[in-house]
Every structure is written in C-alpha cells, then in structure tokens.
Amino acid sequence: MRDWIARGVRAVYERVLRREISGVPTHVAIIQDGNRRYAREQGAEAKRGHEAGAETTEQVLEWCADLGIEELTIYAFSTENFDRPAAEREHLFDLLTEKLYEFADSDRIHEEGVRIRALGQTHRVPERVQDAIAYARQQTAAYDNLTLNVAIAYGGRAALLDVAQDVADGVATGDLEPEDVDVEAIESRLYDGELRDVDLIVRTGGDERTSNFLPWHANGNEAAAFFCTPYWPEFSKVDFLRAIRTYEAREASWRQTRTQRALALVRALGEGRGRRVLDRLGESLPDGTEPIEEAESSAD
C-alpha cells in the first residue's frame, strides 16, 4: 500500500515538473556515479550495480528521445577506472561490449534515429570492446536525431594533452602554422566528429564535482550543473526533470545577467555608442530592451 501511494505521488510530481519545463538543453552529459555503493548497500557484488546502472542508461536515453534532447554523453569508463581490480574491469568491459551490440541492434535506437559513437582513448580497451564500438558506430552512422556519446577510457586532461601534442607535432612538421591554432583547430582534433557544447552536466551519487569530464565543451560553455544524491541505478525521471529545470533556471538567470550588462554598457557610453560597441563585440542588446531614457526611468 505504501509503495502504491509513493508511486502515485511520484507520478503526479513528474507531471507537474513536465508542465514547468518550457524547453530542454541541447546536450546533456551525465556522470553515472554510485553503481558500486548501490550494490554494496544491496549486499551484492559490484557487477550487479553496474548491470543495474546500465538499465538506467537505457531509460535515460528514452527520456532524451521523448523530450527532444539532441545529444547525450555518458561517462561509462574513465582513465582512472583502469586502476580498479582486474575482475571488476573485465566485467565492465564485458558489459560495455554487450550493451553496445544491444543498442546497435535495438529497434528503438533505429526508430528514434540514434547515432552511437565513443569518446576517449579507446585503443586502450580490449579488442572486444573496440569491435563493439566499431559495430555500433557503423550500424547507426546514418542517423542524426539524437547522438549518444559513450565516454570510454576517457579523461578530460588526457584528451586535451593529446590535442596539445598533436598540435605541437603539426607545427613542428610544418603542417600547421602557429597562427592557425584557433578554437576550430583544437575542436577538430578533440573528438572524431562534431561535439555540441554541453548545456547541462548531471552527477548522481552525492558528490558535487565534475571529475575532469568534457572540460572544453562544458566548462568553456559554462554549463549548468545538477548534483543529486540517488545512486545511478536509482536515478528516476523525476530526478532528470529536476535537472532540466535547474538548467532552465540557470539560462534565465544568465539571460538576465546579459541584459543587465548590456544596459550598463549603454548607460555608461550613451545609447548610440553603446549599441555600436555591443554590435562590434557580437553581443547586441536583447530583443525588447528599452531605450536608455525609458530604462532609467523605469528603474527609479
């Protein structure tokens, strides 16, 4: 009886959250933390937690498709995970292999037009995982409705270091001129294919840190961050909608900040000159901004 009431309350809250959300982020990145702690609290081995977490990943992918989110990146295996016990690593590699093949052959994946690819130093993982990555990429290469990035053998510092070394080699061999090292040159070397800027980072399990995850595309874009206490296997749609609500609140706050900065600049320089400066910077006044005299009088 108590479980039935709890499910009912959760369903109502989910509907309320859904009505509160007017838009969604383009790219969500998730740090799936807490699988091992979940298993430990259940009195089970770590591999049971990872298996339960894989089921949550499937659900989140469905939620993204339903909500119209265009890109989802999941932190499946970090460079630090190579330090875990061999038996746990091998189970994770088996699970990744199984799920990549399963996703690539899933009717839902093909119906929703989901493209699957991997990020990271994938040459470091066993051949069976590399084969599964190649299969999933090949089977879904033609789709573009939703992109699922699986970060495997990934670390943000390692990725940036690889790019720095590649750029240095290019300059040394004359294939790249120093003055040509720009944002585009870096991004084209970071990953195989375009990666959208991250709008929202979600971390489960209670820790409030981003763990070296997509620093170029998340920190550079000042992504919103949502930290929650449920372990990854316990992560629910209510938690996901709350994360999106956090993103929306942050976007609204950022738009307000930009408007205030624009008005302050216009007031400081005068309307005509201020607008010219904003246009030159590529940051024109937000739509609907009042003329300077009206804005000042309304602030009194």
TrEMBL record:
This is Tritrans,polycis-undecaprenyl-diphosphate synthase (geranylgeranyl-diphosphate specific). Its cofactor is Mg(2+). PROSITE patterns: UPP_SYNTHASE. The gene is uppS2. The active site is at residues 33, 81. PANTHER family: DEHYDRODOLICHYL DIPHOSPHATE SYNTHASE COMPLEX SUBUNIT DHDDS, DEHYDRODOLICHYL DIPHOSPHATE SYNTHASE FAMILY MEMBER. GO terms for biological process: polyprenol biosynthetic process. Residues 290-300 have a biased composition (Acidic residues). Its EC number is 2.5.1.89. InterPro entries: UPP_synth-like, UPP_synth-like_CS, UPP_synth-like_sf. Residues 280-300 are annotated as: Disordered. Catalyzes the sequential condensation of isopentenyl diphosphate (IPP) with geranylgeranyl diphosphate (GGPP) to yield (2Z,6Z,10Z,14Z,18Z,22Z,26Z,30E,34E,38E)-undecaprenyl diphosphate (tritrans,heptacis-UPP). It is probably the precursor of glycosyl carrier lipids. Homodimer. It holds the Pfam family Prenyltransf. Substrate binds at residues 34-37, 50, 78-80, 82, 84, 203, 209-211. The keyword Thylakoid does not apply. It comes from Halodesulfurarchaeum formicicum.
